[in-house]
Amino acid sequence: MTGTDVRNETEDSGPSGYAAARLRLLTEEARSGPPRRAALSTLTDDWLAGLFTAAAEGLRGVSLVAVGGYGRGELSPRSDLDLLLLHDGGDPKAVASLADRLWYPVWDLGLALDHSVRTPAEARKTAGEDLKVNLGLLDARHLAGDLTLTSALRTTVLADWRNQAPKRLPELQELCAERAERQGELQYLLEPDLKEARGGLRDATALRAVAASWLADAPREGLDDARRRLLDVRDALHLATGRATDRLALQEQDQVAAGLGLLDADTLLRQVYEAARVIAYASDVTWREVARVLRSRAVRPRLRAMLGGGKPAPERSPLAEGVVEQDGEVVLARAARPERDPVLPLRAAAAAAQAGLPLSLHAVRRLAATVRALPTPWPAEAREQLVTLLGSGRPTVEVWEALEAEGLITRLLPDWERVRCRPQRNAVHIWTVDRHLIETAVRASEFTRRVSRPDLLLVSALLHDIGKGWPGDHSVAGEIIVKDVAARIGFDRADVAVLSCLVRHHLLLVETATRRDLEDPATVRAVADAVGSQSTLELLHALTEADALATGPAAWSSWRGSLVADLVKRVGAVLAGDQPEEPDTAAPTAEQERLAIEAVATGSPVLALRAQTEPPADAGEQPPGDPEPLGVELLIAVPDQEGVLPAVAGVLAVHRLTVRTAELRSLDLPDGVEGSVVLLNWRVAAEYGSLPQAARLRADLVRALDGSLDIAGRLAERDAAYPRRRGVVAPPPRVTVAPAASRHATVIEVRAQDAPGLLFRIGAALEDAGVRVRSMHVSTLGANAVDAFYVTGAQGAPLPGDEAAAVSRKLEETLRG
Question: What is the C-alpha to C-alpha distance for residues 684 and 779, in angstroms, rounded to an integer?
């Protein structure tokens, strides 16, 4: 359908013709993106102009004006129509009647309308009071009526905006910062708001407003394309949902990707992130320039008075060879020769990060345009400057982003391209892969005093997830990549071996500490064999904590830190030559013996709760403030009977207690005391609120064991009300047997979606399988549970291979059902 066809059909058929033409336009697969938005704007312009002409016959001094997004011609399928009815203050009744005859046809078609009726003076006054109105009027576009009236308003509003820029632009910057605080950063969100989040369409509009002020201008390269890409995604989102929404929800991403002809939702998110990154970086550069100009304007009159009207030369302070500070930014020295100095980009970046200053846009672009590639292997200075940059803490992020914006990072590290802007569909991760790597380096910079080779710690932090751009286990792929990258950077063979070991095993400590029995010598020996040396263990400990802290708040806690520190201590002893002793059945403590005797005497369970709030002294560095509770130790003694594990797990789930670790064993009673007792030593924590009273737990446990408490029913009721995100389907549970994990028990590992009563269901299934649970280690990251169960047969020996596999399959079938 051509523009002429649209115009003719609209004129001939009125509102119904417009609706039909609009529908046809939106369903045309051949036309999308800017052409469709332009055609939709033209179609709407002609229809509204027709309405205005018919309704305003004989009325003078009135015009219809498109403002905001409609004024820019950016109509998405479900966009609001932003309209201003401008009048010269003539007959109020005639203007009101005209407004009704314009607005009601729009509403009758179900279109969203943002409208106002004002005189030029009222519009100007409102713009001066309301920044959002002012921004909308900057894009005012005449539709119909008195063109002189519209042109005069545009001229006045633009003149006011430029005259008031020193006051209005700081207000606009504050508005953008507040919005970013509320909505987050578009380039990292799994369900981003394309309009409101930082780096979104609102920020692109703000950059247009800054340019209109003539005070400063945004970097142009790539900005229009980034804005167009976000608008295309919003168009596809409107068509997929049939709603006026800017939030790219998880359940719509596959359909939106298909509508744009993209491979999958990850490809879609990566394009969104790349566009957002361009806009966010342009915003940073532009607001710095605005601040610089405003500072210059404030200082200049005083300097002119002092210097007799002369213009002072900007002060330049040397930072490094070829690098100086000027006006709050890091720039290249006049004598710098990037074409002859391939280390200059890293030297400038390291100097900027060390000084806590931004890299000048012009400096980065000059480097990108002229610098030669580094030789292979890198010279020692280049490697040292990279380590200095990574070790500079929080300022590293901004400097790295400046290099990234001009493509310098992928020129230095070509493997970076595969992780750049790569989303992580895991609620635990709050960053894209590339930003997570930089955040890990920032966190690792805090631990450089704990290790003997800070350079290896920082580089391993930067590269530990580099394998996520490749298929398969990212740790295995990363080990291969890092061997090549580390050699290219200039590390010797021994250092390359350490770096590849750190990347290959960067998850080893936390996974072992939270999922394996640390009392089992096989566990400790396996870690010692993988690590190989005390110095590598030291580095791996620091990398583990930095990685977890950079992942998100759910990935690290004092409890996890204490477990990892305990494992590191045990592994360190083995590496020092000590041999871990085979675990003996420890004699019961006085409290355990008391509880066991009471359980036999009463024929019912007894329990005791004991809070643990202080982490061990060697649990790693702790954040300032009150110590984080490690949980509560729960001791339970139960006369030996069937169903103990599911009963205890079910009662704890009913009372909303999270199980962190658990041990179960039969207890030998003192001479003269008949009967056998199962002793459970568990560490638990309340999901929220306070812990229940021990008496209530005991009463419910008694009912659970005698069958009068319907645990399954209670948990099913809660499960029905458990909040789930519409359209999100969790991957199916997976149950595996860990090979050679222990000589004393078979280790069955369960990976599943965390939910109330999961441990109860697992315990019931293992009980039905006729196996005994010796201990279990529970780990929950976000919505994912990874639980390890040490099980034996009835005689206390590990399960034969075929029996272990059968139990594993049966448990998986139960959880899937």
Answer: 12
- Is the pTM higher than 0.90? The answer reads no
Q: How many CB atoms lie within 10 A of CB 577?
A: 6
Q: What is the mean pLDDT of residues 413-436?
A: 91
Give dist(CA 63, CA 47) in Å, integer: 15
- Compute the distance between CA of residue 785 and CA of residue 744 in angstroms, rounded to an integer: 24
Which residue type occupies 198?
R
User: What b/e readout covers 311-332, taking b as 16+ CB neighbours within 10 angstroms?
Assistant: eeeeeeeebbebbbbbeebbbb
691 forms beta bridges with none
* CB-based contacts of 814, cutoff 8 Å, min separation 6: 761, 765
Indicate whether 240 pLDDT > 90: yes
The phi, psi pair for 524, rounded to 5°, reads -70, -40
As a whole number, the mean pLDDT across the chain is: 87
Last residue of a domain, which of 679, 701, 721? 721
What is the extent of the structural domain holding 799? 727-816
- Which amino acid, one-letter code, is at 237? L
Q: Are residues 147 and 107 in the same domain?
A: yes
**Structurally, how many domains does the chain consist of?**
6
Domain contains 731: yes
208: nearest Cα among 193, 224, 195, 221: 224
Task: Tell whether 359 and 452 lie within a shared domain.
Answer: no
Q: Which of 760, 813, 814, 748 is nearest to 786 (CA)?
A: 748
Q: How crowded is residue 120: how many other Cβ atoms within 10 Å of its Cβ? A: 18
CB atoms within 10 A of CB 471: 7
Please indicate, yes or no, whether residues 456 and 374 belong to a single structural domain of this protein. no
